[in-house]
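In the current project phase, the collection of sequences with tokenised folds has grown. One resulting record follows, to show the layout:
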Amino acid sequence: MEEKKTILTSSGLRNLQEELEDLKVNKRKEVAEKLKEARAQGDLSENAEYDAAKDEQRDIEARIEELEKILKNVDVVDEDDVDSEKISIGCKVKVHDITFDEDIDLYIVGSTEVNSLEGKISNESPVGRALMGAKLGDIVTVEAPDGQMEFQVLQIEKHI
């Protein structure tokens, strides 16, 4: 079975590459230094600093492995592929939430770039899935856990 491709915008790709570089170059060194200092304290069996550094080292290595796996099987959305006539990954969208009578700015991104605080939603989320392919003026219905929501598309622009 082929692994599912991770869809990223070019800025999302850059962010993951920078995070990977930081983990490999900086964080590994920091943890190695913490381990060295903790070992210098003697008995490792009751050394909380050593245990914490080993946990941090394990987390860093797991994240490096995860990032390398993502970056090995990535599909980058090119700005030329983004159509500002209909919603797709790489679009900034202004929608009117009919239920709550408010306008919301959303960025449609791949699932690894999601950040609700920045309004970045996945194309695979219920709202993202409903908006994909919608055009200016369209009203889309989203099946949410707490009932239906309706959004009207007010604006679509490329945002790569």
Q: What stands out?
A: The longest strand covers residues 147-158. The mean pLDDT is 88. The chain has three helices and seven strands.
